[in-house]
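Title: Comparing notes on inverse folding

I've been comparing how different people in this forum approach sequence design from structure. To keep things fair, I'm posting one structure and asking everyone to reply with a full sequence. Here's the target:
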């Protein structure tokens, strides 16, 4: 249980009730924090369980004005709202998840319990090569060749998109990862998967 749930407030939008952590209720110290540090503070409050994130961690961030000058710095926890990956980082991660599922199954466990702990967006944008150019159908021809060359990998990714919760796989041809993130994936405000808690979109 979150020991800071007393900071939970509610608001109603279009007839639906949502909750959020009222970080401003922490007082004057909060009002002096840079906006980026406020985002870290909200994340720590929302995810506080006195195990991976403790109340002392929340206080460390709240006391940023004095702590950020400490020699060597201080360590603070951060759980992003989501993780974004492209081919070169995302495919190996998906292979690891598949291997973990096999291991759990071999040990007699439920492999479907193995899923990313936070939402993952995997954008396939790094594998296309330019074999055709200077023609109206060059893009389509290059994409067709990409699918031929990488069919096994794309079939694996298609399986992963269906097999894992909390994972969205954006197919090739949709655009480069940064553009896709800004135009389609960024949410500004997230809502909890199982509870209607509002929180800022953050990504690593």
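Reply #1:
Here's my take.
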């Amino acid at each position: 249980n979150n020991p800071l749930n007393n900071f939970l407030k509610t608001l109603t939008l279009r007839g639906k009730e949502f909750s959020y952590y009222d970080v401003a209720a922490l007082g004057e110290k909060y009002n002096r924090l840079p906006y980026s540090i406020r985002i870290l503070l909200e994340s720590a409050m929302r995810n506080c369980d006195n195990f991976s994130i403790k109340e002392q961690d929340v206080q460390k961030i709240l006391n940023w004005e004095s702590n950020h000058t400490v020699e060597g710095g201080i360590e603070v926890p951060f759980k992003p709202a989501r993780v974004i990956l492209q081919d070169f980082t995302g495919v190996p991660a998906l292979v690891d998840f598949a291997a973990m599922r096999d291991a759990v199954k071999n040990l007699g466990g439920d492999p479907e319990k193995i899923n990313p702990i936070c939402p993952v967006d995997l954008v396939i944008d790094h594998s296309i090569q330019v074999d055709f150019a200077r023609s109206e159908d060059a893009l389509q021809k290059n994409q067709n060749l990409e699918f031929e060359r990488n069919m096994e990998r794309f079939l694996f990714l298609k399986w992963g998109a269906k097999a894992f919760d909390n994972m969205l796989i954006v197919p090739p041809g949709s655009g480069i990862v940064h553009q896709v993130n800004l135009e389609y994936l960024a949410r500004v405000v997230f809502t909890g998967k199982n509870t209607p808690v509002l929180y800022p979109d953050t990504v690593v």
